[in-house]
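Usage example:
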Amino acid sequence: MNFWANPIQVTADWLMGLFTGWGMTEVLASILTQLLGIVVLITIMLVIDILLVWIERKVVARFQDRLGPNRVGPFGLIQPFADIIKLFIKENITPAGVDKVVYNLAPILSVFSVLILWAIIPLAPVIIGVDLNVGLLYLVAAGAIGTLSIIMAGWSSNNKFALLGAFRQVAAMISYEIPMVVALLIPTVLAGTMGMLGISEAQQGMWYVFLSPLAALIFLISAVAELGRTPFDLSEGESEVVAGFHIEYSGMKFGWFYAGELLHAFTFGGFWGILFFGGYHFFGLENLGPLVAAAIVLFKALIGYWVIMWIKYTLMRIRIDHMLAFNWKFLVPLSLVVLMVTALLNTLLRDTSTWVMAVSMFLSNVLIAWVVIEILRGRSRTEREKVESPAQPVVEATH
Amino acid sequence: MTILFLITAVVILASAMMVVTSRNLVHAALWLVASLFGVAMLYAQLNASFMAVVQVVVYIGAIAILFIFAVMLTRREMRDKGPGLNKNWGIAALVSLLTFGGLAVLLSNWSGFSQPSADFPSGFDAVGALGNALVSPDAFVLPFEVASILLVAALVGAVYIAYNPRSGDNRK
Amino acid sequence: MENEWLYIGLFLIVGVALPAAAIILAWLISPKKPNPIKDSTYECGMETVGESGVQFKAQYYIFGLVFLIFDVETVFLFPWAVSLGKLPLFAVLEGIVFILILVAGLGYIWRKDALEWV
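Running the assembly step on the lines above writes:
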């Protein structure tokens, strides 16, 4: 096997040969090889995480018409390393009355829930941690652990504001999980499998964003809400609950919350790219080799991350009751309607050519969007009339 | 891999013990999460991938969080100050020992301990087969639809009981 | 026995160990100078007023409940979605009936104003 055609398998075989040559049993050697691979993957993810801090600060600076860090190293590239060193050597202030075990476990679980997602992301047809055939539900399960870590952080801090921030954040996160899971059902219907590799392979002909742009949009909105970023960042509303559930954290624990959030955004950008924008497919470029395919996936993840940052630095924060109303009264019914229409069209047009199916699905999405906009316009018209008309009786009464 | 099974069993049983004996209610809820995660590990060892992730998504992601919400909503004081045992603990211990003995005798005649059930053929799409079974007319389509009615009944009932529009609690 | 979950299990262990190692390293090399004022609870720089437990609205619980119901619904829909490609139209209609019954439930609680956050 050529190294460049399948680097992971070649390295794994070489390591297995090395370990069994040293006298270990098959089982132990395979466990050790897998362990080494996992440690390498997680370390790469953490290094990307550090670079994401730099990207985030530079991009927010440009959005706000300023330069961003540019003193420490060329273009400020050493800045995040300086930040990490600072976080390591800062004092860990543990407030009085906190629940020590839960308090220390929360940041670990928070970043853990993001790291484990990288086990199922297909970087190339041959570079994937493990191709679970329930990949999408695994994504939801990791989100569930993240939600739990926020409640743990908020409760154990022994602080009113932390608890409030945590509860509001968790209420928002669990609400937005429903449209996210329904939006995840749509690539499942189109591809016929929940496994990430299967969904990537099925997009060889046509990316799913063209078949169902509404699903991509709903997934993006729900993902931004799950991440707790603006416009849905009530837990970090500085004027409202100070810093939300991580007020009482300092030093590396806070560092894990912050870095975990950035890596989470990058991971969701990656999922958006894989589920809707073709994964590692890019007009045949991925056939050059698995490393090129991995670069394509990371590039799409960066573009998704840039879109999420763009949304964050342009929009204002939304109030929690608006946020929850938007979810339960708009996104959930809309996503269920899109799912039903997609499933129906997928089965009715199964035997026709790809182009007929693609065009009709795209048109159905356009139709649903148009109907929804008309309904919203009608409602806003009635709201406006209700506000403008009561002025009349007041004028009459002064006669 | 019996060692893995034994570790999982110890995790589940120890967490369950801690749920029942823990004084702090939120700690008890978190030990419950650990126990449920142990059950998910058990499903994973049996290669039932769908059940394992569904266990985490539904039990840990929804039910445990609902428990924690309920605990925080109804308790001013998170600690349980009463005595750990009441005066009938002797009889309760006797009854549970007899039950355990009875179950052990019953199971000792079961053949499953020596003959594990066959694995699925490789390439078997378990989730697809489950989906097929859920909607085919001679399998489980009626329970599938009745399940949705059950869910709506639970929803309507819970909202009817829990929601009080006149309480108007405007605090946070 | 090639179990793909073994890899996930190893991933989980490393995923907990690495952040924990970083936090332990930070704990080892950071200064430790606790004093009562630093360790007091943060309330925008003022002295804390009242107990640190607040009374919660029942609305949190209602939203958690509605989320649970819809979560179980989507879990039922996943096998349906996976097997749709090979099933006749009848199967799609059954799934749509399933979804519509739950949308009716959502409509009921919407009309009862249980989704308001006041």
